[in-house]
């Protein structure tokens, strides 16, 4: 199939841009008083997903991880471009992939406005653009000593499924299916990110593991932190036996959560509890920012030690 025929068949949809798919470039107009937020993520077969994963799930997650970056900035996702290398133009795979991709764009109000296709090892590169009111973006460098540390959702689900898939953890079939959904169908917290404008002092999304990602906030803000292991929301498994070390590794360093981690002054505690109810999104206070450098995790009086703080591509 020719390149432009492939684009027309699988990736051309109506857009909200001034000029969309089919021209040399797309034109977008940012609303007065807003800034443009831009991010990019790449999904590579064998690194980010297994080759036999349902293509719908690959399409959804490829877009969702980018939408999650917008959520982490408090931005509304608006436009995206897709560049994809394909070993072949397989109709069944492309149909499922494009359906998953557009299911995500439609849920979060994103228009696909351009990109590129070529032959090669399966590689999916997406650039996403969003809007955030001038000066209101959530960034990583605003955490202050005494701030509370919060996370949305439950951490460690995707990481436990990965250990199951790799043959390192036994899981009950029903619970394996539940964890697989967390891995393949993450739900970006866009509404939460928007609501945190003016509340969160720093924020990011959790992709490489809680310890690794939180460290980015600590480094940018020049602060430290203590975490309460007992407070961190974990998968509640009734039918599968998971060791303490396996659970701790999944929750603290596993990655692929795509939840938001943010800091906020204690004065916002009641407001955040109310926001959790309003958005129907679990929000949990898991620790505190400290003036002294370092990231420490305690389970009661016991300090947990980890040499591996999370996923790194070239570690």
From TrEMBL:
The enzyme's E.C. designation: 2.7.4.16
Domain of life: Bacteria
Catalytic activity: thiamine phosphate + ATP = thiamine diphosphate + ADP
InterPro entries, A to Z: PurM-like_C_dom, PurM-like_C_sf, PurM-like_N, PurM-like_N_sf, ThiL-like
GO MF term set: ATP binding; magnesium ion binding; thiamine-phosphate kinase activity
Note in the entry: Reaction mechanism of ThiL seems to utilize a direct, inline transfer of the gamma-phosphate of ATP to TMP rather than a phosphorylated enzyme intermediate.
Matching NCBIfam families: thiL
Function, as annotated: Catalyzes the ATP-dependent phosphorylation of thiamine-monophosphate (TMP) to form thiamine-pyrophosphate (TPP), the active form of vitamin B1.
Protein's UniProt name: Thiamine-monophosphate kinase
